[in-house]
C-alpha cells in the first residue's frame, strides 16, 4: 500500500480532471480515508496474529526458503477463510442468500447475520452515545460500564419483581434501567461540580463498585433463582422482554429504540438550548461561566443524561437478549461503547454507524470462532487497534504518506489529565 | 488539580475563604465520631460476648492475643470516638494525621473484634497474605508514580499486568526457567508502556483514551493467544515454574515479622526495595528533580535545558518494567498458570492506590497494603461464613479513592502537568 502514494501523486500532476482531483483528495488525511485505512491496518495486524498463532501454518514457515509457496498458500488460505467468515457472519452468506432465491433455503437463515449484527449493536449504540455526549460537554465518561451494569440491574429487577401487563411492563423496566444509570452518573457529576473530583477517577472507581454490587445482589434471596445455586437471577417475565423477530432471529426492538434515541441525542446536542450549553461548557468552561451558564449545573445534568443513556443500554441488553441477570450480564458494553464513541468521532450518527460496525465484527467473530477456530478475542484486538489508529491520525498519515488535510483533531474537546 | 476542575468559581472562593468553623480538621473529627459511634453501638451490640483470639501461629493453638469480642468492639469504637472528639476540640495541627490514623485503626480493630468473637484469626497468615495481595498493587502503583510524576497519565497498568503475566507464563514454560519468565514479564510490560509512550508523547493522543484502549488491546491479545496456544496445550505453553520461596536464616525466626518478611519470594523484596529506591530517587537525585519539574511545569523545565519528551519516554518505559514485574506475580507467584483476564481489575486497584497514596511511593505502599488487607479480610470473612458480604469489603479501595479525590478527607492533588502532552513551541 505504501508504494501507491507516489504513483497517485504523479497521476495527479498529469491531469487536473475531476477524477484526478478526486484521487488527490482521497489520498489525504481526511476523516473517511483515515477511518478506512485504520480498519485496513487493524485487519492486517489481525491477520499476522492469526498466522503466528496457528501451529500448522507456522510449521510451513520452517522451510520457507526452500518452498515459500507452501507457507504463503497456507497463510493466505487461513486468513481468507477467517475474514470471509467475518463477512459472512456479519452481513450475509452468499450461499444462504442464493438458497433463499432458489427456494431451497429459508429467509431467516439468509437474514440471520444481519440480525446478529444489529442485536450486538443495539446496546453499544446507547453506551456509545453516553460517552459521546459527555465528550461534547468536556467530560470523559469512563463510567459507561458501571452505569450499564446498574441499568442492567434495575431493569432486570423490575423485569421479574413486578407483575404488569405486557407493554407497560416493558416501559417500566426500560425506565428503571434509565433511572438506575442516571443515578450512577449523577454521583460523579455531583462530585465534579461540587468538589472538582476528576470524573475519570471517580467513574473508573464506580465501574468496579457497580460490578461488585451486582455480584452481591444476585445472591440475595428474592433475586437469585431459587432452583439454582450459582449466581443467576430469576428469569425476566416475558411481558418485560423487548419484542423480537421470530426465532432463530434475535434482533429486537432495541435497535429501533437505538435509532430513535440517536436522533434524540442529535437533536439534544445540535438544536436544544441544553446542547448549546454543554457544547459551550465543553469548549471553554471559563467563557461559558462568564456568559452566565452554570458550569457545575451543566456537568451534573450532562452526567445524569449520559448515565441514563448507558443505563438504557444495559436495560436493552438484559431485556433484549440476556433475559436474566448474571455477574457478567453487561459483558463489556460500557468499554466497547467508549471505543464506539471514539470511532464515531463523538457525533451521534457516527456513533450509531460505529456501533453497527462493532456489532458486525462481533457477530462475524462468532462464526469465525465456530468455523475456522480463530478465537473471538481477535475481535477485541481488532476493535482496540482500529481505535488506536483512529485516535492517532498522525500515525496513519505517516504510514501511508497521506497528504495534509483539515482533520478534526480527536481529543480537542477532551478533558486533559486528571 | 488540572485546569478543568478549577474552572468553577465556587472552588476558588472556597480555597481562598478565611478560616471557617467547619474546617477540614473539624469535618474529619465529625466523620471519626460517627464511624466510632457506628463501631461502638452496632458492632458492639452485634458482637458475641466470646473470646476473640488473634493467634501468632498458623492455627487456633499457641500464643495469642485475646480479648472479649463484644468488649473489644465497644472499647475500640470508643477509642475512635475519642480520637474524633480530640480533632473536634481543636488540637494542634501536628497531631491531626496521627489522630486520624488512630481513629481508623480503632475502627478496623472494633470491626475485627466483632467478626472474630468466638473464633480465631491467624495473625501471621493475615499479614503475609495481605502483603502478598498487595504485591502487584505496590508494583503497579509504583509504575504509576514513575509515569505520572513526569506528566504521563497511566491508566494502562491493567494492560501491563496482563501482558506481564502472559509473557511470564509463556516464556517461563517454554524456557522452563522462572527467571526467563520474570524477564519476559518485564518485556511484556515494556511493550504496552512503549505503545503508551509513543502514542501519548509522540502522537499526542489523549492519554486516558490510550490507556483504556491499550487495556482492551492487552486483554484481546493475551486472550486470543491464550485460546489459540495455551488452552489446547497447557503443558507445553502454560505451566511455568513458580518463584521459589527463600528463607533468610536467623531473621526468619523473629515472631510475626520474621515469617512475613524474611520467608518470602524475591518479588516481595524487590517491591519493598523499589519503594525506597524510587522515593529516594524522586527526592534526592538529579533524575528525580527533573522528573518532578517535567511533571509540574514542563515549559520551565525545557527552558533550563531538560529534555522533556526524552525524560517522559524513559519514565514511562521504567514504569513498564515495574508494572511488568507486577504482572509476573499473577502467574509466577499466585496461581502458576495464565488465565484469560486473570488480573480482574487489579490494575485499577493499583491506580486507586496511586491516587489514594497521593502520587508518592510511600503513600502508594501504604494504600496498597491497606487495600491488600481489605482483600485478605474479605477472603477470611467469606471463609468463616461471616454475614458481612465480601463484595462490600472488595469495594473498599474504590470507595476510599472516591472519598479521597472528592476531598472529603483531605484533598489529593495530581502533578500539575499530568496528562498534558508537551508540545515545544
TrEMBL record, chain A:
Keywords per UniProt: Cell membrane, Membrane, Transmembrane, Transmembrane helix
Bilayer topology annotation: Multi-pass membrane protein
Protein's cellular compartments: Cell membrane
Domain of life from the UniProt record: Bacteria
Membrane-traversing stretches: 21-52, 117-135, 147-164, 170-191, 200-219, 251-269, 299-319, 380-400
This protein's name: ABC transporter permease
Lineage of producing organism: Bacteria, Bacillati, Actinomycetota, Actinomycetes, Micromonosporales
